[in-house]
Amino acid sequence: MSFRVLDVATVGRMRLTKLGHSCVRIEHDGTVLVLDPGVFTEAGAVDGADAVLITHEHPDHYHPDHLRATDAPVYTIAAVAAQIRESAPDLAERVTVVGAGEEFAPAGIPVIAVGELHAVIHPELPRFDNSGYLLTLGETTVFHPGDALTGPGRPVDVLLAPVCAPWMKVAEGIDFARSVGAPRNVAIHDRVYSDAGLGIADGHFGRFLGAAGLDYVRLPGGADL
Length: 225
Known about the structure:
By secondary structure, the protein is α/β, with parallel strands linked by helices.
């Protein structure tokens, strides 16, 4: 199968592949981690995965059929683990629960769980649990925030930056990316807007992050960087 590939060649031996919406596949020194394979994720995303990480329970980030397509261990928060036990018990024995601030090493890759709560969707709706993941891949760090604007509290090389969501204004996404200050920003959470809306969001992200000396890219279908 073919993937849309972003090779971050300037920051180490790492390949980062965008696989739809918020799912990314990261390869480093022969190890493959897949984050947030959900309903908008291409089939085959978990092929060859050594571990799968899930930030929270929403279906655009977690879909059990992707987990059934691999034997890899799954690392996630307690809320997702509870949902798996209830709706996909055949997967439960492969799940390891992680909590905020915890350091763990799926397939030998150092990871820190960051944050505890999903961004506010509406004040009258309950807050969901959410954990971002800060990965260290040799000398390169990558941060996936899930559905939150909670930063890692330390410098990172690559931010997987949400660009459109029911819980976020474009201005908030831009300010979050600027606060993290990663030299490279790769757009995720991008299946909510139309192509026209994404064009507007890309223009704003590119303008403001570029002015701050930060790179921004959202990969169109079939494009490599």
